[in-house]
Amino acid sequence: MSANRAVVPILLILTLACGEEVVDPMDRATIERDLEERSVRDLLDEAEQRPWSIPDNHRLTEAHIADFVKVAALAERIMEVTGSRFEDQMEQATRAENRFSRMGSAFTAMGNARQYSTAHVRAALTLDVNPHQQQWVVEQVIHAGRIAVRKRPYDEAVARARREHDEETNAYLRIQKGSAVREAEERLKDFEQTLGDTELANARLVEKNASALSRFFPFLKRK
């Protein structure tokens, strides 16, 4: 899926005196205009005025994932459009290091952390997603994603054992392969019991959405 398609459903609607005009937030001119109108300091001030609380159960939801993907796609486009100009703006807003630096730090391997975190703040505000939510989701997806990757061999072993059992036509061998299924399921269960309920729920959700998330978290790509 292209970045443009990823945000088509959330095109911004600007009401003008002559009617309504649909503005694509991925459009270069739209992004450049926003860069002129809202400085990094303006963005950070606006973000601070949008309180947000971590969910009581600390669990990710499908909505969190969907918001993250559309914001990350726009942030990626913003970085593409702004280039070196981004760094010049960041030098004028040193407070960013203390406000959304954790988001950027999580992606240091992908480039300049300050550029990344600021692009996400701009993208989140543009798409009316709370930047604090976006930062929390980044952190949770990374943590849950690492668990999901560790869990994959157990899931794959169970799936393989079940498939071999279902495909077996010899009655005696089918019994043996039924035992293999139960053993694989037991190993998976033992691994899952080392996790908390929230960790397991988040890992399962991230794994379910791994295809979409792997664009931004390469370590989630399935081999």
Short description:
The protein contains twelve helices and two strands, in the order H-E-E-H-H-H-H-H-H-H-H-H-H-H. It is mainly α and 223 residues long.
Q: How would a crystallographer describe the biggest sheet?
A: 2 strands, antiparallel
Give the rounded overall mean pLDDT: 83
Helical amount:
55-70%
Number of helices: 12
Shape estimate: elongated
Low-confidence stretches: 1-18, 89-97, 106-111
Compressed to H and E, one letter per element, the order equals HEEHHHHHHHHHHH
Distance between the termini: 19 Å
How are the strands ordered across the major sheet? 1-2
Q: For the CA atoms, what is the radius of gyration?
A: 22 Å
Based on helices, strands and strand pairing, what is the structural class? mainly alpha
Number of extended strands? 2
Residue fraction in strands: under 5%
Topology summary:
Elements: H1 3-7, E1 12-16, E2 19-23, H2 28-37, H3 40-48, H4 62-82, H5 84-91, H6 96-99, H7 101-105, H8 113-126, H9 131-167, H10 171-192, H11 197-208, H12 210-213
Antiparallel strand pairs: 1-2
Helix pairs in contact: 2-4, 3-8, 4-8, 4-9, 9-10, 9-11
